[in-house]
């Protein structure tokens, strides 16, 4: 990369990465009654991104791939902020916010290939407490020869259903068994976007991550369960190519994805050893259909927000009491400031719980 392009990136990357972090902050704290206050708090970091974008036009054709990645990320960030600002006056304001928040994963997907060559981008895909970990940074920069690592999409283009996206850490080595995390998107979501809610943690703390996409518009919460067999096939595929710890297979999800973690994960034949539903709906009938042998000692980690406006927190408290009474090994976390959104800051804690909590 020539000196001028490096200078341009020095000016463009900081506002771009800052804008992405602000979008992440908004997604985490999104709560309809507080929307105007939250928008005021995150400000207009996209203005600095717009101001620096013209620098890319003078880059030589030899840097076209890098230019395109940065441009795609910047355009996605700008589109997200435009959508968020217009949502306040939209008839379908809530859905407009959700549509706008589909853009940040597009930016992350575009930037991820640059992590191998640009330290600031690499740090974006690490937990804050790992960004100065020189040993980890060295391992991530030195993949094993012929190792299949990085981000893959298997039948999971944005317009496809029933496939999955996969992340294998760059420091993967086949001489040890790795935890497996299956992260399920919410209703009308897509695994390709939800992958990024967990990638930072998987990369920082060592886990193989799978983000599947439901076959239908959402997970099979009623009628024929077409999703559970599909997920089982994914587990088999991943375990056939990478060294997966058979005792550390996490089944987690947000909203409908969390509810399906109950529906499917409580089945006797489930390939998962630990369940971690977030912001999910629950009814005791789900557990009443489960075999007692499945529930006894089953590690379940529930996360719910006290301000959840879709699935009231009382439902999660009832789930915790009931599951504990059945003999499940229960952990319950309730966040006072969480509405109906995904608290990614808890991912390291959930992954540590997966590693430390045995299946009885």
TrEMBL record:
Source taxon at top rank: Bacteria
InterPro entries membership: AB_hydrolase_fold, Plant_Biomass_Hydrol_Est
Secretion signal, residue range per the UniProt entry: none
Alphabetic keyword roster: Hydrolase, Signal
PANTHER family: FERULOYL ESTERASE, UNNAMED PRODUCT-RELATED
Protein name from the UniProt record: Phospholipase/carboxylesterase
Source organism of the structure: Caulobacter ginsengisoli
């Amino acid at each position: 990369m020539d000196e001028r392009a490096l200078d341009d990136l020095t000016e463009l990357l900081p506002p771009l990465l800052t804008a992405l972090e602000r979008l992440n902050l908004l997604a985490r704290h999104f709560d309809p009654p507080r929307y105007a206050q939250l928008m005021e708090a995150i400000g207009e970091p996209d203005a600095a991104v717009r101001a620096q974008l013209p620098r890319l036009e003078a880059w030589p054709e030899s840097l076209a791939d890098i230019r395109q990645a940065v441009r795609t990320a910047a355009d996605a960030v700008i589109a997200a902020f435009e959508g968020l600002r217009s949502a306040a006056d939209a008839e379908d304001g809530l859905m407009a916010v959700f549509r706008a928040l589909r853009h940040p994963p597009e930016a992350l997907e575009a930037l991820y290939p640059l992590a191998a060559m640009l330290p600031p981008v690499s740090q974006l895909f690490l937990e804050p407490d790992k960004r100065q970990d020189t040993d980890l940074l060295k391992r991530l920069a030195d993949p094993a020869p012929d190792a299949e690592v990085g981000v893959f999409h298997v039948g999971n283009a944005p317009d496809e259903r029933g496939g999955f996206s996969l992340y294998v850490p760059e420091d993967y080595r086949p001489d040890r068994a790795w935890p497996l995390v299956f992260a399920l998107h919410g209703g009308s979501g897509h695994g390709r976007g939800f992958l990024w809610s967990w990638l930072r943690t998987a990369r920082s703390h060592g886990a193989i991550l799978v983000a599947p996409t439901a076959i239908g518009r959402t997970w099979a919460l009623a009628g024929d369960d077409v999703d559970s067999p599909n997920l089982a096939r994914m587990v088999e595929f991943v375990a056939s190519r990478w060294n997966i710890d058979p005792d550390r297979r996490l089944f987690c999800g947000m909203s409908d994805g969390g509810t399906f973690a109950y529906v499917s994960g409580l089945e006797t034949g489930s390939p998962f050893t630990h369940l971690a539903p977030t912001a999910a709906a629950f009814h005791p009938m789900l557990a009443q259909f489960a075999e007692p042998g499945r529930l006894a000692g089953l590690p379940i980690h529930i996360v719910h927000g006290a301000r959840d406006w879709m699935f009231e927190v009382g439902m999660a408290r009832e789930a915790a009491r009931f599951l504990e009474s059945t003999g499940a090994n229960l952990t319950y976390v309730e966040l006072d400031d969480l509405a109906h959104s995904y608290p990614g800051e808890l991912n390291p804690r959930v992954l540590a719980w997966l590693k430390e909590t045995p299946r009885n």
